[in-house]
Design a protein that fits this description.
Layout lengths: L20 H41 L3 H15 L10 E3 L7 E13 L2 E11 L1
Antiparallel strand pairs: 1-2, 2-3
Helix pairs in contact: 1-2
Length: about 130
């Protein structure tokens, strides 16, 4: 005769559930990788927003294309913008028309080995 073990109050034994150690380790690695890529991407987006703000201010406060480039370079030095310089701005318009500046650049985030994430930005401001 075999005896069966029962849980509390005569109920059938409960089956254990949950993650194994390997499962927890894989989830932790995935979370760390996603957080790393997310934080690096956040820095790239922050730089893009800083560039947009500096270009907008330079266009609004300047009267000539040379003034726009100089104002952008001053803002780039203050805000530590390294992806773009005043000479990279394509400035259109002139006296009486209002100025507009457009720019494009790319940033690459190295992930591992030959794998990288490339961001391409193109924008124009008035």
């Amino acid at each position: 005769m075999t005896t069966r073990r029962f849980g509390a109050a005569g109920a059938a034994p409960s089956r254990q559930r949950g993650l194994t150690f390997l499962g927890v380790a894989l989830v932790a690695v995935a979370v760390v990788l996603l957080a790393t890529v997310g934080l690096q991407s956040a820095l790239v987006v922050k730089e893009y927003l800083t560039i947009r703000k500096a270009a907008t201010r330079a266009v609004r406060e300047s009267a000539t294309p040379l003034d726009v480039r100089a104002a952008f370079d001053r803002a780039a030095a203050i805000d530590d913008i390294t992806s773009l310089a005043g000479r990279d701005l394509d400035i259109t318009g002139g006296a009486g028309q209002g100025l507009a500046a457009s720019y494009s650049y790319s940033r690459e985030i190295h992930l591992a080995g030959p794998v990288s994430l490339l961001y391409r930005f193109h924008d124009s401001v008035k």
